[in-house]
Amino acid sequence: MLKAADDIMDQEDSTSQSWDINDIKLPQDVKQTDWFQEWPDSYVKHIYSSDDKNAQRHLSSWAMRNTNNHNSRILKKSCLGVVVCNNDCSAADGRKIYLRPAICDKARQKQQRKCCPNCSGPLKLISCRGHGGYPVTNFWRHEGPFIFFQSKGAHDHPRPETKLEAEARRSTQKAHTAVSPTSPRLKRCREAESLTGEMQSQEALPLLLSNQENYISPCSFNGHLIDKNPQEQIINNCLSLAKNYGFGRSPYLTEHSQDTGSNKYYEKCKEIGSREHGSGDLSGPSVCNMYADYGEPQPWNKNTALERNPCTDKCCNGSALSLADLHCEIVSSQNCMDSSIQHVPNIPPTTKAGYHPARPNTGLSGDDFYEGKLHVNYNSSYIPSSFYHLSSEDPYLIMNSAHHHQQPLPLTKGNEWDFEEERKYTNLDYCNNELVFSLCPLR
DNA sequence: GACTGCGGGTTAT
DNA sequence: ATAACCCGCAGTC
Predict the structure, then answer these.
(1) Smallest CA–C1' separation from A75, nucleotide
(2) What is the dihedral of CA A304, A309, A311, A316, to 10 degrees?
(3) Where in chain A are the domains?
(4) What digits encode the pLDDT tens for the residues A35-57?
(5) Using the CB atom, is residue A190 less than 7 Å from strand C?
């Protein structure tokens, strides 16, 4: 526990330094680098290892375009915002979609001429004005063995689709379009999608925008009802844990849908709390965190300084892998997924530069993260949208389809991670050892 | 075709 | 001087 607290301090040390990206000399005595942050927000700084492939590529899940700052040493990128429907339409379940603006100016202009995948209305680009009325800017600077990152401004818009999601769905959509003739209207939208890579077909929408309650409901599994028994509890607990670790958030969720889902989820949390602890007290670590994540109306984006940091990652030790395995098992149980994700490997935990040997490979550091080699990201739940194009009877797939808002694990007094409490509340070991196997017969 | 990095240039503060 | 933005080019995927 103390070591975990130390890790927190280390993390803070590397993210809240007094340096500025424009400093002539940047710190060279960096003790520990940060794990790559896919959704950096607010005025944050990170120091990545120069070995970090994502940092090398200056990646971000925000739609960032290059901006010339006439300084070849510092790469500056500004946020493009998010593309929404100008009619402010909602899907049948009340959810909205947030498309990723094309980075290329021409492609973006073309994208905005296309129709909304939901209502065929015009699309609208919501510009980012989170930095004094100007777009949020990210700065990258390579110095020796480190890559310094600094973000200025807080995004004032929803998160767009990730690049990976857009790419995955584009390829999926292309394949789908090739085999399935549709109405002219849908065809038009699909054409638009194929051009922008950002839109969903109407058939896909029920999945993309699937009701959150669906994927948090543990009581049915592909048509198999699971009675209220220890197994359900296990599943609930693991789902809770999954949510704590970032599974189950979707950029497509509206605040309304989040609230709707979270209220029910809150009740589920209370139920778990009552059953496990003999009270409806929500102060327990996992339950508390769940509600923090799903019960509060979410701003567009929270400070993600703790996103996939070594501490949260470390707390996932063991459990996260099993959750990923759970995901794999569940996904594997569906026969309708696209071929690219049919064989999700059970990747053993790996380490990054030896910093956290016990840490799961949450960052999928390097190529895996953005190159789609892996489809399970234990902490960021980086699931390509091809997962969405599955049966609408697959709520568990949707659970794993989102990837935002990694939540820190519960803190106890003095900012110390309480692993024992976490384990107690989540039946971690039980999840690890039994859940995956208990679900196998469902295949 | 789209993304990315680079750099020349313009405009505003 | 600084910052934001536009545009074109070239390399890459």
Answers:
(1) B5
(2) 100
(3) 1-79+130-156, 210-442
(4) 888 888 888 888 888 888 888 88
(5) no
| pLDDT tens, residue by residue, A180-213 | 544 444 454 544 444 333 333 333 333 333 332 2
pLDDT digits (tens, 9 = 90+) for A211-254: 322 322 333 323 233 333 434 433 333 333 333 333 333 333 33
* Residue spans of alpha helices (H) in A157-248: 163-179, 184-196, 205-208, 212-216, 230-244
Q: How far is CA A419 from CA A4, A6, A290, A326, A356, in A?
A: 9, 14, 16, 21, 16
For A344-403, how does the pLDDT look when each residue is reduced to its tens digit (9 = 90+)?
333 333 334 333 323 333 333 333 444 333 333 333 333 333 333 333 323 233 333 333
Q: How far is the CA of A66 from the C1' of C12 (A)?
A: 16
Q: What is the pLDDT of residues A328-358, one digit of tens each?
A: 333 333 333 333 333 333 333 333 433 332 3
Q: Are A358 and A316 in contact (CB under 8 A)?
A: no
Residue A433: phi and psi, rounded to 5, are: -90, -30
- Architecture of the structural domain at A1-79+130-156: Single Sheet (2.20)
| Protein residues with Cβ atoms closer than 7 angstroms to any atom of nucleic acid strand B | A 57-59, 64-66, 68, 70, 72, 75, 77, 102-104, 106-108, 110, 163, 195-197
List chain C nucleotides near protein: any atom < 7 Å from a Cβ.
Answer: 3-7
Q: What Å value separates CA A232 and C1' C3? A: 56
A292 Cβ contact list (under 8 Å, min separation 6): A407
Residue nearest to nucleotide B2 (CA to C1'): A104
Burial class (CB in 10 A: 0-12, 13-18, 19+), A88: exposed
Single-letter amino acid code for the residue at A198: E
- A371 nearest nt, CA–C1': C13
- CA–C1' span, A65 to B12, in Å? 21
Grouping H, G, I as helix, E, B as strand and the rest as coil, residue A55 is helix
3-state secondary structure A106-149: HHHHHHHHCECCCCCCEEEEECCCCECCECCEEEEEEECCEEEE
List, for residues A255-298, the tens digit of each pLDDT value: 333 333 333 333 443 443 344 343 333 333 332 222 223 233 34
